[in-house]
Amino acid sequence: MFSIFTEFADWIVYGLLQFPTDNNTAHALHFFIEDVTKILFLLVVIIYIIAWLRASLNVERVRLYLSGKNKFVGYILGAGFGAVTPFCSCSSIPLFLGFTSAKIPVGVSMAFLITSPIINEIAVILLGSLLGWKFTLLYVGIGLLIGIIGGIVFDLLRSERWLQPFVAQAYMNASPITESTTKTPKLSVQQRHDFAKNETFTIVQRIWIWVLVGIGIGAALHGYVPENWITTHLGDGQWWSVPASVILAIPLYTNATAVIPVMESLLLKGLPIGTTLAFCMSAVAASFPEFVMLKQVMTWRLLAVFVAILLVSFTLVGWVFNILAPYFMFTIQG
Q1: Per-domain boundaries in the chain
Q2: Is 75:107 a contact under the CB 8 Å cutoff?
Q3: Could you give the angle at the alpha carbon of 278 between the alpha carbons of 255 and 97, nearest 5°?
Q4: pLDDT (tens digit, 9 = 90+) per residue, 7-24?
Q5: pTM exceeds 0.85, yes or no
Q6: Are 102 and 67 in contact (CB under 8 A)?
Q7: What pLDDT was estimated at residue 231?
């Protein structure tokens, strides 16, 4: 199915522009054109379909459902809800506030907040098409596990005492959600289409520039970074390469969708799977803009714990999967 995008890039780069096949610029441009057309096409189609299916999703009903579950089930559900909502790290924060104001345990809300930027349904389908479903399931499983463990840790620390005062007060004084506040009107086919169309336009408008930036970085790595440079400096089994990649990724504010071309390019260049996972997870979930936003609802102590849990988790993920790499065979999809 996706060979049409490869053929289109071939026609542009090697036919229309007449680049030689052994040229670095040609390789970078081919990667950019192929991934831009493929990912933007998938984005529009996937977002529309998922928005159509999600048209009747009532966040209040989700909050009611979560508030009625025991904590352990809540961690799983919170992380799972984070995985199926197309929010970046910053836009997840208002929903996090809604959860705390509904007196949902802070650990459950944190499980959502951690997982939401790492996984979304768009990124999952893109990962499956580019890197194969074995790698995709691995990525999703890790993201959910980090969210669940993070939620447990935050509740063990009684982290609600480290929320900003106005958030903590809203949490303590919250009134329970009732069934009467969660009624959802049945939507017609036209209303679902209108919702899906608007949702598609809104999300694509918000993330297209980051997709281009991510693909641009991936294309530059693919075309201009020597084949053995990455493996020599970060991919030759050095223990410090994983924490180094986690720290290096923090300034790269991106989302799970835009980071996929970078992930693809790093893997093609020979970066180990664990180091690649650690780098990309840090890029999407541990960014300066997110920390600035989180400071509005968290004290410095809670923010420091949040950041530390993320960075330690990503580093451990990198180390473990670099060790297990020989047992996980996957291929980059053409």
Answers
A1: 3-178+188-327
A2: yes
A3: 45
A4: 899 999 999 999 988 888
A5: no
A6: yes
A7: 62
